[in-house]
Design brief:
Blueprint lengths: L1 H5 L9 H20 L9 H9 L5 H16 L1 H36 L2 H20 L22 H13 L10 H10 L7 H22 L11 H11 L1 H24 L2
Length: about 270
């Protein structure tokens, strides 16, 4: 059993998690660039999806892939129901967080001139970009605890919903990279001028959808044995860790460019 956990036999020579990351990165960064001149604030929305997706290798991300993917091996309908409950409950939690910070952005708009707020946001984004590149180092403020494993006792569907809501809050568990903090900063300075609530709900919801995507694609990571499908998914996630990191860096760099552009046209 120990050997199987270390070396599951997986079909194919390519890493589907890495390939998915390249696809998401290309589409989302292109969408961000194309919307920059027309809707500068909205151009951060595709980046929010990247920030969520690249949390896949966090302890909670891997744990949920394992917990929900294993159900797909026995009953596909059970897995779909659990993955949907996880996604929808997490969407509710993330939208609630976005709503709260969207409301608080009204205070920021009173205390800070918009140009000063955008300058602060640009500096904040650049700082986190440098951190993820390894140029500077500081710990991320986070609650280094997984979601509650004891919720399994409530059954797969209920526990999936509770895990989704808990992780969907964004900052209740492990965070691998600093993108979520950049999103909160963007919401707080009303990056979509006059639409703080819309920005909050949109950015945090897209962040969650990116994070939840892993539980939908993991069951389709094939292996030579259906028993090892979950192990193959986890193996591919670990192998794609550098890809995830540099995709996150690219999204942060794009967010920094967006913030500098918005500052320059003020």
């Amino acid at each position: 059993m120990e050997h199987a956990l270390k070396s599951p036999t997986c079909n194919g020579t390519t890493n589907p998690i890495a390939q998915t990351s390249y696809l998401i990165g290309g589409v989302c960064i292109l969408a961000s660039v194309l919307t920059l001149r027309v809707f500068p604030g909205v151009s951060l929305a595709p980046l929010a999806f990247i920030f969520g997706w690249t949390q896949i290798a966090s302890p909670c991300g891997k744990a949920l892939v394992g917990a929900l993917t294993s159900s797909a091996q026995s009953k596909r309908r059970m897995w779909v129901s659990a993955a949907a409950a996880y996604t929808l409950a997490g969407l509710l939690g993330s939208a609630a967080v976005g709503l709260i910070f969207g409301e608080l952005s009204a205070v920021t708009s009173v205390l800070l001139h918009r140009r000063h707020a955008l300058a602060g946001f640009a500096l904040f984004s650049i700082t986190f970009t440098l951190r993820e590149m390894g140029a500077i180092s500081f710990p991320l403020p986070q609650r280094k605890r997984p979601s509650v494993g004891a919720w399994r006792s409530f059954g797969l569907l209920s526990s999936a919903a509770m895990w989704g809501f808990h992780i969907g809050l964004g900052f209740a568990t492990f965070i691998n990279y600093g993108g979520p903090y950049v999103l909160i900063a963007a919401i707080s300075v009303q990056v979509m001028s006059g639409h703080g609530l819309v920005a909050g709900i949109l950015l945090m919801s897209l962040y969650w959808l990116g994070r939840a995507l892993s539980v939908w694609i993991a069951p389709f990571v094939n292996s030579s044995s259906s028993i090892n499908s979950t192990l193959c998914a986890l193996k591919h996630i670990d192998a794609a860790r550098d890809v995830q990191r540099w995709l996150h860096v690219s999204a942060l760099a794009t967010a920094s460019a967006v913030s500098l552009y918005m500052f320059s046209v003020m």
